[in-house]
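Two proteins follow. First one:
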Amino acid sequence: MRIILLFSLLLPCFSFAQDINLELILAAREGKIHRVKSSLMAGADVDGTNKKGKTALMGAVSFGNTRIVKYLLIEGADVNARDSNGYTALMNAALIGHEAIFRELFTQGADINAKGKDGTTALINAAFSGQTEIVKLLLARGADPNVVTLDKTTALHNAAYFGYHEIASMLIGRGADVNAADSTGLTPLMSASFYGHEQIVELLVAKGVDLQAETPTGITALKNAQAAHNEDIVDILESAIEEAEAKAAAEKVAEGQQQAANP
């Protein structure tokens, strides 16, 4: 009986705490600084969450409310807090492209290599949504270009798929694996060839990509280009393959001649 009575007494307090935390999150999303301040003064937890694990900081980041982001950080918001998917505020900023907010979060100690439950990172998010400047910032600060998601997607896969040539070039310049295959065996070259991103195909070819890579179902970059009727890319790939085969044949002949000369 005493336990039931105690729970009954505590329930209104719990409900109030939840309500005030949700009010803080909503105010942060809507950009209402005065409501953010009043919620905190009323006892809201700066790191309180909603049902999806989102905090007020995440809400402010997602809606580009820079002033509120700065205020919440001053009030002690956890810059590396994670939502129910394992995403951080920095990962959201990278996806949406709020460069000023991104810089603020980084300055306050945000983990640039934090991974969501699906393996996504801020760099993979930025490459997905074409945020060139954020990709540049992340790479300059040491973000790993070869991190893979659960389905083995890399940042370069995203850049090649959507045709972000500058991002692809930066990633490769920082050591991204041009031959990385996702869980279905698709490589960046295969995606770029199918979707008609000629500049990226040329970039990958110039970097010595495996032209003959094949998925378990028999897909190649050349077959993709042919299927999509991307004739210019077909020409690029066929020429590159012929050149590679001719080079390999010449090297084999030279090797044979050297062996004959030195029995």
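Second one, unrelated to the first:
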Amino acid sequence: MDNTKYLIGQLSNIQTQLSIILRVIEKEITNSSNISNLSPKGRILALDLGTTKIGVAVSDELQITVRALPKILRKSWKELLKKIISLIEEFDAIALVLGLPYNFDGSECDMSQEARRLHRNFSLSLTIPVFLQDERLSSKSAQQNLYDQGYSMKEISKQIDSEAAAVILSDFLAYKEELMNQNIQLKPN
């Protein structure tokens, strides 16, 4: 009887892990076809979407480094779109990356649906490609980055949204680089 309970528990863990793996594979397939068409030069903007504040970050021209920009206060869709269009023009951005929140088990949460809705709206409203990037643990990484730089908790709370956008963008660029390296390895000499 104890072995049966143990095996059922193990099967449940395996099922959860497979579910997470399948979500990652699905995400990679969804983004990878568009990423391969993205120019290796040009700035990319990233957003960490929140209900009241949106963190913003931008890459350099060569897509090597990222920096946080001032956060945006979220009000209406029209205002948000105007601000994002203004940033795209200011930085001559070639793509926009939105953080896609997941629960730790890989399942989607309420904000996941909101991120997907905004992804669709931005995709329909902008002339540049819009990508989704898994943002699990981006806020924790952002908090640690700021703490390591010597910021106080009060300063961290003011900057965490845009620092999280910088983490999201860094993750996206690393994923893009990994895909590019895989494509190079797959091509015959």
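SUMMARY FIELD: Residues 24 and 105 are 12 Å apart (CA to CA). The chain has a mean pLDDT of 80.
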